[in-house]
Write a structure and sequence with these properties.
The complex is a heterodimer. By secondary structure, chain A is an alpha+beta fold. Chain A is built from 49 helices and 16 strands. In chain A, strands 1, 2, 3, 4, 6 and 8 form a 6-stranded antiparallel β-sheet that branches. In chain A, strands 11, 12, 13, 14, 15 and 16 form a 6-stranded antiparallel β-sheet that branches. In chain A, strands 7-5-9-10 form a 4-stranded antiparallel β-sheet, with no helix packed on it. In chain A, α9 packs antiparallel against α10 and α24 packs antiparallel against α38. Chain A is extended and about 120 Å long. Chain B is of the alpha+beta class. In chain B, strands 2-1-5-4-3 form a 5-stranded antiparallel β-sheet, sandwiched between helices. A two-stranded antiparallel sheet of chain B has the order 6-7. Classes of the chains: A alpha+beta, B alpha+beta. At the A-B interface, α1, α2, α4, α6 and α8 of A face β2, α1, β3, α2 and α4 of B.
Chain lengths: ~1250, ~190
């Protein structure tokens, strides 16, 4: 045997191992790809062999190739094989490969569940460790669900090595399977105080990660963390805790106050920079949360700022960076304390490290005041000129705009200066932020009325020199500013000195090379300008000039009419026709100007950016619904060729444009000359320019001087520097004046004592240069102030927003509901019970169901809120809440318990409104089975809401159904039930060594023939809606249809002969004898589940309903109609609902004397007592109230509220059951059924 | 959370890549290239933090890296990690490698990627820091290799012999990233116990 192994390994040693592969790749530098492909072929051969060592070696090599970028997903199955090797060496290779290339889309991952479970429970701690490590990288929702319990168990493993890994991986499990958070949390919390520091650190790590996303749920842990913080010496843990506190303090200011002291101590005492830094950070967070009126904390701020200054001044760039980062946080709330370090920050702007410069830029934002804004921006403009990389330059640009525009242009005293800064910024070549500058121009021009005249003049110059901006057109984002320029000139054309010239500039042929949306604005605003010009001329009764203007438009507009851009084309042809008409009128000497101007009359008001979003949606409007059926996808393709054809035209014009450029050049030359002659910085567009243009002297200026490709300076532009000087002068003047005044004042005040004089330096005293009327933006009248629409709905952490507090603190708590426990496989008894769960279930207080339903509703409301966003007013919500609460109270005794995990949530409180709306949607949801069978969806009481979210809901439904189906296929029996039974059997009882429970199935064969087999779930889900729907109860029957033949089954119809008492729920409009179509077809060998709802009136008697299933069997040659008869048996048991009850309540119930008794004796029962109990729990929906040795009391209640109590005793194969119930016939039937259950075995 | 750990050399050749979120192989290579591009153009004496990896995670994430002789060690982390802490973790990682390989150099990483992965797995698990104590990490790593050796037993002997022979003609290994003699200023995050 040993010889064989040695021989095998000798064969093997000539295979390439990882080292050989790497060496080979290094030796084949020129034809690496080719070499690797031969290697992959070899690997494929090796993977085909049976020897696991060879396979492992191959997989190891694949892992390396994966790193080099080769897709190795084809070997996923082999990886699984290697993972399942019994040898640690190979197993590790397998898990490593899996962790590198498995992900949620890997299909073989579902094959690994059992292997991983086996490894997790392996006696060898390293096997377990490797499995945990691997799993942490590729855990999927399915794996998380199936393995959550195993991992929970490992959290109390004896070896700290395993414990810490298990604790850490829980975070990943929570992410993928949020339902596991509540059951696992108590144990996780326990681990915070684990004796091993590694485990402790892991637990801190996980909770910090959780709390970061949903801090409010972890506030209750603050005292514990506080204790840890003061006791722990592990810096890593300390940092995590301190970071966590940073996240918690905004929610609880009292916590912050407590923290300040220990944190300050730490700041003073620690030598570790990382810890110091985090402390400072958290102190800042605390101070922010306390910012309102806590003057005595100024010492802390000073301390922080001081420490940060030390960091920033440090030669270590890392510390400098972090110091600046933290500074920016202080800046938000305490700008004053940061402003005193302006020197330092400005110095950092010159740092050679870009990261640091960027951080410093962030800080500048808060450094500015009215006084120093111009100075700072000037400095930044210098940086803009110097900056090489476009990214940094773009960053500078956005920062300049940010700084200037912050809080509604608070710091700008001179808008002329700002406009000229913006104009200067347009000189930036290749910036991405043209649109940003454009929107600023628009914003300022619209909102600052006083500046319009100046802005229009500037924009007109920009338009005139548009060719400079569009040097190399399309790529250049800066031409976006022309959009703004054109619009401003058009809209405020009354301020234009020479509208005719601007009009001419806007209709130049070269405009046709601009992007379409800009051209469209050009055309539209040309029309506005036209109106202005007309009016002007008519005012001067210069009909000749007016007609010339019309002619100009008629000449130039056809260029745009042929544009490829639809918008341009449409506007142009519209306006062209208009102008033609005007021309006709003009020729008849009709005064038109007034009417034309009326076309563009009326002022446009600025609208807040979020205004549209805030308009409340009127009731009954569903924006998601299709108005018409969606068109088929193929249609859109037809339109493409058209666009391609039309696109060719602009090219044609471009060639023509170059000719016109000559004229342009001449004109620009002229402007330049003008500029030089007069003020070097700033020229008002003078009306005389037109004349100078005609002067002959212009020709002599050499053309060479103008370099088109380097448009460094736009002629005729004002320079912002000039304003800086002006501003300084002005301020000095003002200051002088003010001082004079103050002196006067002081003299006056001297007698009365001086105070409240903020001093001459105070910023508020600087008056703006011009009177500025900043118009505020408009919002819809009844807009909501809420801003909660920022959260990303796809964030996995949203699902983890689970209330955990109740789990922890004593009485008034919401314990884990049965449905929340982690799923356990019933036939894996070793993981069946975990102490934590037991403990939790023991402490279940009597008002469980009430609470849980309430909580569910809260959750529901949360969801609802999300969905509704800000659609509804708060008032309404309140009302809604009240209504719901009333409903809840009206039937406090009604249990809401059922078998399915989520289905437990079926709120009996969802009112009849829902019952009415849902059937109407039956057609829509037909693919998702009968609508009533899905009460797990949180439904709204308001019909319009239900509708609006239908889309989403439908999807969810389908998903959920699919999941359920999967689950069922895999286990083929209902494990939740088994679990409930198992749990119950040990509830309250001493936890003793008990034999594992045999698997129990809930499905029984309903009917079968050669074609089809119908399996019916014994335990129907029962929904009691008695309280609000007459006195009927609804029962849902799940039936699995399995195709046993090898033909296709379709058109299945399910029909039941109604009795007086029980009726099949049919969709509205269907007759009482119509069948229900099963919403699926069955290919050979496939099974699927459908649910049917029955309404039942009396539940005291068992009932039998006759039914038929008709279907079509379709084989290759023929299709035949077939039918299958069955009998649906509704046992009394099926009307019982597992309901927990507590011994005191139970005793009271028995004492009340309302119950009538009956008893039953069973002989020859040969099974352990806990099996017996489990069976009763499982099959008959009882729960154990108390168990003492071989005696147990059990409780259940019917859907109509009958109490059923059992006292089960056993001695020597004899079981006696004393039962009490307030409905004797029901009791009798239940006992009969009990008897039957046990006679079977 | 740590989103990814990358090791590549001065030429951008990947020596180890560990992504804690799933990306396709192509995206992974792109990320490595992009990261290399960002990191390699930085001077030696600038800060070790970098924002703006576009591919991986976006603005919330930071790249924290260290450069040792021929290798870059880059950790991509989100805001829940302490920057200086991660810098220290990189140091711990490199020192552990040094201990396990006895004067680690780039070639060790090239030829024993699996081993490096295993050491890393004892330190970071699923993107979360598992252990920061160097001796604890190396103890576990040693225990693992001991188990491996005991499993190989006699069967492994011939393979080991062959591989030893193969290794004899390895190119003369420049043992050049001996971190012992490279003095990196570590912010004194003193005791990670």
């Amino acid at each position: 045997m040993a010889l064989k192994i040695v021989k095998g390994s000798i064969d093997r040693m000539f295979d390439k191992n990882l080292q050989d592969l790497v060496r080979g790749i290094r030796n084949h530098k020129e034809d690496e790809a080719k070499y690797i492909s031969t290697c992959i072929d070899e690997i494929k051969q090796e993977l085909k062999q049976d020897n696991i060592a060879v396979k492992a070696n191959a997989v190891c090599k694949l892992t390396y190739l994966q790193m080099l970028g080769y897709d190795v997903s084809w070997a996923a199955f082999n990886i699984v094989e290697v993972m399942s090797s019994s040898k640690f060496t190979f197993k590790r290779i397998g898990y490593l490969a899996a962790s590198q290339c498995f992900h949620e889309g890997t299909d073989v991952i579902m094959l690994t569940t059992n292997q991983i479970r086996k490894d997790l429970s392996s006696p060898n701690q390293y096997d377990t460790g490797v499995a945990l490590t691997g799993l942490s990288c590729f855990v999927t929702p399915d794996l998380a669900r199936d393995l959550a319990n195993d991992i929970m168990t490992l959290m109390s493993h004896t070896k700290p090595y395993i414990r810490k890994k298990a604790v850490l991986i829980m975070y990943k499990v929570f992410l993928k399977y949020p339902e596991s958070l509540r059951p696992a949390f108590p144990r996780l919390k326990e681990k915070l105080e684990d004796p091993d520091p590694g485990v402790q650190s892991a637990a801190v790590n996980v909770i910090c990660e959780l709390a970061r996303r949903n801090p409010k749920n972890y506030l209750s842990l603050a005292p514990l963390f506080f204790k840890l913080m003061t006791s722990s010496t592990n810096n890593w843990v300390l940092i995590k805790i301190i970071k966590l506190f940073g996240a918690l303090t905004p929610l609880e200011p009292r916590l912050g106050k407590k923290l300040i002291e220990p944190l300050t101590n730490l700041i003073h005492s620690t030598s570790a920079m990382s810890l110091l830094y985090e402390c400072v950070n958290t102190v800042i967070a605390v101070l922010i949360s306390l910012s309102s009126g806590m003057p005595n904390h100024s010492a802390s701020i000073q301390l922080c700022v001081q420490k940060l200054r030390i960091l920033i001044e440090d030669s270590d760039q890392n510390l400098k960076y972090l110091g600046l980062l933290a500074m920016s946080k202080i800046l938000k709330t305490h700008p004053k304390s940061v402003q005193s370090h302006k020197d330092l920050i400005l110095q950092c702007l010159d740092d050679k490290d870009e990261s640091i410069r960027l951080r410093a830029l962030d800080l500048l934002y808060g450094m500015v005041s009215k006084k120093n804004l111009m100075e700072i921006v000037k400095k930044l403009m210098l940086h803009v000129d110097k900056a090489e990389g476009t990214t940094y330059r773009d960053e500078l640009l956005t920062k300049i705009i940010d700084i200037c525009s912050q809080s509604n242009y608070q710091y700008i005293t001179n808008f002329e200066w700002y406009i000229s800064i913006l104009v200067e910024l347009t000189r930036l070549e290749g910036t991405r932020h043209g649109h940003l500058i454009a929107s600023q121009m628009l914003d300022v021009a619209i909102r600052v009325k006083a500046i319009r005249g100046f802005a229009v003049a500037q924009m007109a110059t920009l338009l005139d020199n548009a060719h400079l901006l569009t040097g190399n057109t399309q790529r250049n984002g800066i031409c976006e500013v022309l959009y703004a320029a054109a619009w401003i000139c058009g809209e405020f054309s009354e301020h234009l000195e020479d509208p005719m010239q601007t009009l001419e500039a806007m209709l130049r042929p070269k405009v046709a090379t601009l992007p379409g949306h800009i051209q469209a604005v050009y055309v539209q605003n040309a029309a506005k300008l036209f109106a202005t010009v007309l009016q002007k001329h008519e005012g001067e009764t210069d009909s000749q000039a007016a007609q010339e203007t019309s002619q100009l438009l008629i000449d130039r507009l056809p260029l745009f009419v042929q544009s490829a851009n639809l918008e341009v084309q449409e506007r142009a042809s519209c306006i062209l026709q208009l102008v033609k008409y005007i021309q006709k009128l003009q020729q008849k000497n009709v005064e038109v100007a007034e009417e034309v101007t009326a076309l563009f009359a009326g002022e446009l008001n600025p609208v807040a950016p979020k205004a549209q979003k805030k308009v409340p949606i009127p009731e009954g409007l569903d924006l998601d619904a299709w108005i018409n059926e969606p068109p088929s996808e193929s249609e859109s393709e037809d339109e493409k060729p058209k666009a391609v054809f039309a696109k060719e035209e602009p090219k044609h014009y471009r060639s023509r444009n170059t000719e016109v450029d000559e004229k342009e050049l001449a004109r620009r030359r002229e402007v330049r000359k003008q500029e030089q002659a007069n003020n070097p910085f700033y020229i008002k567009a003078s009306p005389s320019s037109q004349k100078v243009y005609d002067a002959p002297g212009v020709e002599h200026i050499p053309v060479v001087q103008i370099d088109l490709s380097v448009p460094l300076k736009v002629p005729g532009m004002p320079m912002s520097d000039q304003y800086l000087k002006l501003e300084e002068e002005r301020q000095q003047k003002e200051k002088a004046e003010r001082k004079k005044k103050e002196k006067k004042k002081k003299r006056e005040k001297r007698g009365k004592g001086r105070k409240a004089d903020s001093g001459p330096e105070s910023e508020e005293d600087i008056t703006p240069a011009q009177h500025v009327d900043i118009v505020t933006e408009e919002m819809p009248e009844n807009a909501l102030p809420s801003d909660d629409d920022d959260k990303d709905p796809n964030d996995p952490h949203r699902a983890l927003d689970i209330d955990l507090d109740n789990l922890l603190s004593g009485f008034s708590s919401r314990p884990l509901a049965d449905s929340e426990k982690l799923p356990v496989r019933t036939h894996r008894p070793e993981v069946l019970k975990s102490p934590a769960e037991d403990r939790v279930s023991e402490s279940v207080p009597p008002e469980t169901k009430k609470k849980s339903s309430k909580e569910k509703k809260e959750k529901k409301k949360d969801k609802e809120k999300d969905r509704k966003r800000s659609k509804e007013e708060k008032k309404k919500k309140k009302k809604h809440k009240e209504v719901e609460e009333e409903l809840l109270e009206s039937q406090p005794e009604e249990p809401v318990q059922s078998e399915e995990t989520k289905e437990a949530a079926a709120p009996p409180t969802s009112t009849s409104a829902e019952e009415v709306t849902v059937p109407s949607s039956a057609v829509e949801t037909s693919s998702a089975a009968v609508p009533e069978s899905e009460p797990d969806e949180p439904k709204d009481t308001e019909p319009e809401d239900t509708k609006s979210s239908k889309h989403k809901k439908k999807k969810q439904k389908k998903e959920k159904e699919e999941k359920e189906k999967k689950k069922k296929k895999r286990h083929h029996h209902h494990h939740h039930h088994g679990e409930a039974g198992g749990e119950d059997s040990v509830q309250n009882g001493t936890v003793e060594e008990e034999e594992p429970l045999p698997p129990m199935s809930n499905y029984s064969v309903l009917a079968e023939n050669s074609f089809i087999k119908m399996m019916r779930e014994d335990a129907e889900q029962v929904y009691d809606i008695q309280g609000n729907h007459q006195d009927e109860s609804k029962v849902v029957v799940s039936i699995i249809f399995e195709n046993k033949s090898d033909s296709f089954l379709k058109s299945m119809e399910f029909n039941v002969l109604d009795s007086l008492n029980s009726k099949l729920q049919r969709p509205e409009g269907a007759g009482p004898h119509d069948g229900l179509t099963v919403p699926f077809q069955l290919p050979p060998g496939v099974s699927n589940e459908a649910r049917f709802v029955f309404s039942v009136q009396s539940i005291v008697m068992p009932q039998k309903l006759k039914g038929t299933l008709t279907f079509i069997v379709k084989s290759d040659e023929s299709s035949t109609h077939e039918k299958l008869d069955f009998k649906l048996h509704f046992t009394c048991t099926s009307y019982l609902i597992t309901t927990p009850c507590y011994s005191d309540a139970y005793a009271k119930l028995l004492e009340s004397g309302d119950l009538k008794g009956s008893s039953l004796r069973l002989e020859g029962i040969n099974m352990p007592f806990h099996h017996l109990l489990a069976r009763i729990c499982f099959h008959h929906h009882f729960s154990v109230v108390e168990r003492i040795d071989s005696c147990a009391s059990m409780y259940s209640r019917s859907i109509q509220g009958h109490h059923v109590c059992l006292l089960v005793k056993t001695s020597d194969q004899t079981v006696s059951i004393d039962a009490k119930c307030d409905e004797p016939s029901l009791l009798g039937n239940v006992l009969d059924e009990l008897k039957q259950t046990f006679s079977k075995c | 959370m740590i989103k990814a750990i990358l090791i590549f050399n001065n030429h951008g050749k990947p020596r180890l890549s560990k992504f804690y979120e799933h990306y396709t192989e192509d995206t992974e290579q792109q990320i490595i290239r992009e990261t290399f591009h960002l990191v390699s153009k930085r001077d030696e004496n600038v800060c070790n933090f970098l924002e703006g990896g576009l591919l991986i995670g976006g603005s919330e994430n930071k790249l924290i890296y260290r450069h040792y002789a021929t290798l870059y060690f880059v950790f991509c982390v989100d805001s829940s990690e302490s920057e200086l802490g991660i810098l220290d973790l990189i140091q711990v990682f490199v020192e552990t490698l040094d201990k396990c390989f006895e004067n680690v150099c780039e070639l060790d990483l090239i030829f024993h990627m699996d081993k490096v992965h295993n050491i890393l797995a004892e330190m970071v698990m699923g993107g979360m820091v598992l252990e920061t104590n160097m001796s604890e990490i190396s103890t576990q790593a040693e225990a693992h290799s001991k188990m491996e050796k005991s499993e190989a037993g006699i069967a492994g002997a011939p393979a080991r012999a062959v591989s030893a022979v193969k290794n004899m003609n390895l190119p003369e290994m420049p043992k050049n990233i001996n971190i012992g003699d490279i003095s990196i200023k570590v912010p004194n995050l003193s005791s990670f116990k």
